[in-house]
Amino acid sequence: MGKVVIDEEFCKGCTLCINACPQHLLRTAKRVGKTSYHPAELVDPEGKCTGCGLCALVCPDAAIQVYREKKAGVKEK
């Protein structure tokens, strides 16, 4: 399971991350951020984010951080 954190101070709402998300879990927020842009936001009530990191990879402003949570009982190789 993944967690996406978007820094609204840097997000300009370019939608590159929205288009890159293979799970279609990002969207443009309805609210306007401090920088007068509609930032991207994660919409994942069912926990479908895999933490792939594609959204962070395509972000031109480095406004996205992705974290992966380990599943209980799974050993690392």
**Total domain units:** 1
Poorly predicted runs of 5 or more residues = none
The proportion of strand residues reads 15-25%
The backbone outline, from C-alpha atoms, is elongated
Mean of the pLDDT scores? Answer: 91
Q: Which percent bin holds the helix content?
A: 10-25%
Terminal residue distance:
18 Å
Which architecture per CATH? 2-Layer Sandwich
Please give the CATH class. Answer: Alpha Beta
Counting DSSP H or I runs of 4 or more residues, the number of helices is: 2
Going across the major beta sheet, what is the strand order? Answer: 1-4
Structural class: alpha+beta
Number of strands: 4
Q: How big is the Rg?
A: 13 Å
Main sheet attributes: strand count, strand direction, barrel closure: 2 strands, antiparallel
- Under CATH, the topology can be stated as Alpha-Beta Plaits
- H/E element string? EHEEHE
Walk me through the structure:
The protein is 13% helix and 21% strand. It is an alpha+beta fold and 77 residues long. The chain has a single domain, classed as Alpha-Beta Plaits (2-Layer Sandwich). The model has no long low-confidence stretch (mean pLDDT 91).
Keywords:
77 residues; two-stranded antiparallel sheet; 2 helices; elongated
Describe, in short, the structure shown.
This protein is an alpha+beta fold. Helices cover 13% and strands 21% of the residues.
